[in-house]
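Narrative of activities, Objective 1.

The group set out to show that a structural description can be obtained from nothing but a protein's sequence at a throughput compatible with the screening campaign. Below is one input-output pair from the validation batch, recorded exactly as produced.
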Amino acid sequence: MAQQEWLYGLHAMQSVLENEPERVIELFVLKGRNDERLANIVNQARRFGVSVQFCQRKALDDKVQGEQHQGVVARAKPARVLDEADLDQVLDKHEQPFLLVLDGVTDPHNLGACLRTADAAGVHAVVVPKDKSASLTGTVRKVACGAAEVLPLIQVTNLSRTLKHLQDKGLWIIGTAGEADQMIYDAKLTGPTALVMGAEGKGMRRLTRENCDELVKLPMAGTVSSLNVSVATGVCLYEIVRQRRG
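Output recorded for this entry:
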């Protein structure tokens, strides 16, 4: 495991200082930038005793290999990796668990967007396999706009086994697949639910699909055959939200 990681972006930095300030080792800020949000981040970091250095843009660019850092970069201790034990804690905490399962989403921008939407929709945790999946990188955290620091991202060794465990705990496992017969709008999604989204392009793996209780799809009226996984995730999550509110 890496001994440190680079965090960047205003939302991500604000969120980590609010939720996990002990992780931040050193803050690097764009020299000469007068920005109220940036000033608040600097003040907050200093309150926690974090060293703050003001740098030229190239120095910040070099630290994050050209990613859009928005004038702030931090050297931080890596976050603790959450696993199956943490998942059980989430399930025990909520009477009507609402989970998002991502089967092999490898693009960090898509994972970050899914985390952001999941947090907004009130999802209690996001579950991913340890292998063949994006992890919590600086890019994911920046795209997630603060959601990565508050929404548990749980990495499991065997996704099929985890889905069976969720079924044993009373969750309805609903998978998304283009070849499904039923639209998501026709499914009943009001109880404890885990929504499973497949990988970009390939969809769910066979074993994942076989462990779903129900398969649904979104209507595709145009010429494109599929939506970006983060967009499809948002549509599906909010249909579940709509039904749960009803």
